[in-house]
Amino acid sequence: MKSFGVHLFFLLFLAAIASVTVQAFTGTYGINYGRIANNILSPDDVVTLLRAAKIKNVRIYDFDHSVLKAFSGTGLELVVGLPNENLRDVSANADHAMNWVKDNVLAYLPDTNIRGIAIGNEVLGSNDEFSGFLLGAVKNVYNALDKLKLSHLVQITTAHSQAVFAASFPPSSCVFKDNVVQYMKPLLEFFSQIGSPFCLNAYPFLAYMSNKDQIDINYALFLPTKGADDPKTKLHYDNLLDAQIDAAYAALEDAGYGKMEVIVTETGWASHGDENEAAATANNARTYNYNLRKRLAKMKGTPLRPKSVLKVYVFAIFNENLKPGPTSERNFGLFKPDGSISYDIGFHGFKSSSADSSLLSLKEIRASGWSGSYSIILTMATVLLLVL
Questions:
Q1: What is its EC class (predicted)?
Q2: Which residues contact 96 (CB under 8 A, 6 or more apart)?
Q3: Taking burial as the number of CB atoms within 10 A of a residue's CB, which of 9, 79, 330, 387 is the most buried?
């Protein structure tokens, strides 16, 4: 009788999680938490900053345990990263993938609300060293999640730069590069099977910097402009970001995956740059990010996918003083290293006080709906794994 009861409970549990469609991004406005710096706030203070700004969707580029611990019990929804340099090992060995998931995901659930794992970043199109390992790493991590009964709770993705596209204007002409297709199509096929989106790092700033003679800066900054028309679809675009996203949809459709959702995993505008980066100003950065927030608040899609509400992770929380490359690379932060605002788009700077730094207790989170269900389900999963 006892074994029958455990079996029935297990079947009911599986039915409960199978009915949930996993989504790593449950809002519309998220932020990237890059940490290539030696002068930024501690993870605990970052949690205070994010909660004061009411930003709940957060992406990190690794699996730093101090960050995972700081996010414990906060209700913030986190996507952790498997860095490019780990792809070879995780792709080659399923046991290594399982150990990675156990050590860096399962060990922190349910207290840390890990909703997704980003496998690599901008691997295809610009990083041939790791291209051959991406799909294997994706499959091994997913299979590890599946064996741990977590595949319906933690979503697998990978983010692509625009280097995967052969052309992006007009949007309807966009296709994947020939040297990318051999890796992209099997990846898209697997993602379509498990319900993962296409994640795009889209930067009107970079597009404008490369084509200043052809792109109106107002078009890049969501300011009034005559816009652009797509001669094939007859659609009108009043901003560059929408055009970049619809270009991705066109490439997906050309590849046979037109129903896949596109999520913007990085976008932003530099507030300072080198002499040849004249568009990198605080005023332009403020304009872009302020107008982006307004655009996302409308809860609408793009001209090509008007019913698909756009989801965007802004890059980034901080200016990162140790990033290589041009000066602009170190100045994409909405906040300065001490947590004060880089420019005003409606957020307040970091304030260290007991009121601001108080965290939601797990009891409060469990009383708040889905986060509670998520925590309870994961607790049950862990217990069942131990019992069975």
A1: hydrolase
A2: 89, 90, 140
A3: 79
Q: d(Cα 179, Cα 128) in Å, to the nearest integer? A: 10
Q: pLDDT tens for residues 127-152?
A: 678 999 999 999 999 999 999 999 99
Task: State the pLDDT confidence band at 372, using cuts at 50, 70 and 90.
Answer: very low
119: nearest Cα among 139, 92, 147: 139
* Angular region, 73: left φ>0, alpha ψ -120 to 50, beta rest: left
Dihedral sign for Cα atoms in the order 67, 69, 70, 73: positive
Ramachandran assignment for 120, one of left (phi > 0), alpha (psi -120 to 50 degrees), beta (any other) = left
pLDDT higher for 355 or 34? 34
Pick the closest to residue 311 from 199, 222, 157, 175 (CA basis): 199
- Site of tokens 């998220």: 30
The CA-CA-CA angle for residues 292, 192, 187, to 5°, reads 90
User: 217 and 279 in contact (C-beta within 8 Å)?
Assistant: yes
Strands 236-237 and 228-229: antiparallel
Q: Between 178-194 and 240-255, two packed helices, what is the crossing angle to 10 degrees?
A: 80
pLDDT of residue 358: 40
Give all strands (DSSP E) within the chain, no chain letters: 29-32, 57-59, 77-82, 113-121, 155-160, 165-167, 175-176, 198-201, 228-229, 236-237, 262-267, 312-314
Q: Enter the tokens of residue 237.
A: 């675009």
The sign one gets for the Cα dihedral 284, 287, 293, 297 is negative
Q: Which pLDDT belongs to residue 127?
A: 64
| Cα(120)–Cα(83) distance, integer angstroms | 5
Give the DSSP letter of residue 313.
Answer: E
Q: Running DSSP on this structure, what letter comes out for residue 349? A: P
CA distances (Å), 251 to each of 115, 238, 362, in order? 27, 21, 43
- The residues carrying an active-site annotation are 122, 266
pLDDT at position 25, please?
87
